[in-house]
Amino acid sequence: MLARLVALCAAAALPALAPASDAVLGARVARNFCLACHDHEPGPGAQNPLLPRLTEDRFGTPERAYESIGRLAELNPVMVLPFQGTDAERRALAVWLAAQARRNRSG
Question: Around Cβ 17, how many Cβ atoms within 10 Å?
């Protein structure tokens, strides 16, 4: 009986141990890497300071965003920090950036 209870508790905990989705991981990477410098004051009506920089030609699709993440210093010479995350983090960030670029376009 105790073994069954332990097994049920362990099974219930498995979803919490699952890896974060691309959207969640991308937002986390953006917060830690991008928004560490491109931050804004929190509050009502606050804008994401990256939106004006997220152009369709550079960030409009996850593929374009992924490519641009690898060329940050070339795109903006002021960018002195290259992206140093894992490939999974870069791909998730690319998905997040492309979504933000679409939001920028429609906003």
Answer: 7
